[in-house]
Amino acid sequence: MNKERKITDEEVKQLYAFTRKHFVEYYDLQTELVDHLANAIEEKWQQQPDLSFDDVLKQEFKKFGVFGFMDVVERRQLALTKKYRKLLWGYFKEYFKLPKILLTIILTVLVAKSIQHIHAVIAPVLLFSILIFSLFRFFVLNYRYRKKVRQTGYRWMLEEIIFRCGSVPVFIFIPYQVIEYVYDKEYSAVGQWILAAGVVLFAIYQYIILYVIINRAEVHLEQTYPEYKLLKQ
Amino acid sequence: MKNSQLYKGSLTTIIMKLLEENGRMYGYEITQKVKSITKGELNITEGALYPALHKLEGEGLLDVEVEKVGNRLRKYYKLTEDGQKETVNRLAELEEFIKNMQTLVNPKINPDLQF
């Protein structure tokens, strides 16, 4: 009997389909699991070359435990979400270092002065406008991402996290209470500055998750997934 | 993994130690290596290995490379510079732990306690 029985191209396709069937929707994770299963099956064939592909696959899949690949997928999601937050924090910090800190200061002064000299309602109006705009941008990004997945047929976990803004709603920061609270009130000078800084921080945060990281997505994806570049060639 | 509760905390250290010795490795290779070194006594389960690898990668301790091998893509892991430093720390910590456990479990080995 053939001692060197190897996984065929067709069987590789079947393994990809198998991972998809077991709720692994992301290409990066599928690829790793396909190689793992293929290695395990080939190893088994060295001892028992007559076993059918399906039978060995079943045996090997059992080793992943009762939840199959689910645990691997969930923990991968956690690891990449953490990575996303790290990226986000890295960009956010830039706005408190030269030269970008100048922009942060100028914007804060502008908002504070507007509150002082025009009207306190400026703050909630700004917050609300940023919010509406962010919502709009969020839906555009989601549409763009879905379209790309349809075209390429590949889903990458980090890309999805980036385009869904960390899988946490963009609006976790929703300043509703703030809007309610700040509306129609008189502020102390310190209160005005705090409010202005809050508006500017909110704007910077939204700008980073909705523009900065999105524009740098390719770079981060290529760093995280060497196969991303391989597939593009 | 055999008696997982006791080994669980050391899984990442085991992975890092193997990568330190072997340069770069892929997931399946790691499970087989552990099995052969421990003569089948220790068996890293797939469900534990990949989350541990992804966690280390997320922490910036591991780097990945992908290569086409035969008709499929293979993902290799290797230690980053930070990972190499961290391996030294974690191994020292693990050795200290083993020493303390030995003293606790088998106090007769400690000559100070012998008459």
From TrEMBL, chain A:
Alphabetically ordered keywords of this record: Membrane, Transmembrane, Transmembrane helix
Name under which the protein is recorded: Uncharacterized protein
Organism: Flavobacterium rakeshii
Bilayer-spanning residue ranges: 95-112, 118-140, 161-179, 191-214
Taxonomic lineage from the root: Bacteria, Pseudomonadati, Bacteroidota, Flavobacteriia, Flavobacteriales
Automatic annotation (TrEMBL), chain B:
Top-level taxon of the source organism: Bacteria
InterPro entries: Metal_resp_DNA-bind_regulator (IPR052509), Tscrpt_reg_PadR_N (IPR005149), WH-like_DNA-bd_sf (IPR036388), WH_DNA-bd_sf (IPR036390)
Annotated Transcription regulator PadR N-terminal domain residues: 15-86
Pfam families according to UniProt: PadR
PANTHER family: PADR-FAMILY TRANSCRIPTIONAL REGULATOR, TRANSCRIPTIONAL REGULATOR RV3488
Protein name listed in UniProt: PadR family transcriptional regulator
Source lineage: Bacteria, Pseudomonadati, Bacteroidota, Flavobacteriia, Flavobacteriales
